[in-house]
Design brief:
With 82 residues, this protein is mostly helical. It has a domain of 46 residues.
């Protein structure tokens, strides 16, 4: 049924429909915006891929001020009601 699904005259008809719908003045701006969006998408996808492949560096976390090893390990005291 769709042996030759996309022939050159199909692309011509689609191009004519786009020109009629959007006008010839807006097509360059639309193509430029689409290209910019695709570049951003590609760079973000690459950044996510690189982020997943790089092992996280071990950075020790400094304790809060006034916290010592003894107080950090001590159990919390329950409040005493009078």
């Amino acid at each position: 049924m769709l042996r030759n699904g996309l022939e050159p005259w199909h692309l011509l008809v689609v191009a004519i429909v786009f020109i009629v719908l959007f006008g010839s003045k807006k097509l360059p701006d639309t193509a430029r915006s689409l290209g910019k969006s695709l570049r951003i998408l590609k760079s973000e996808a690459k950044a996510m891929k690189d982020e997943n492949n790089v092992p996280a560096a071990h950075t020790p976390v400094a304790p809060a001020a006034g916290v010592t090893a003894e107080t950090a390990m001590a159990p919390a005291e329950a409040p005493v009601s009078p």
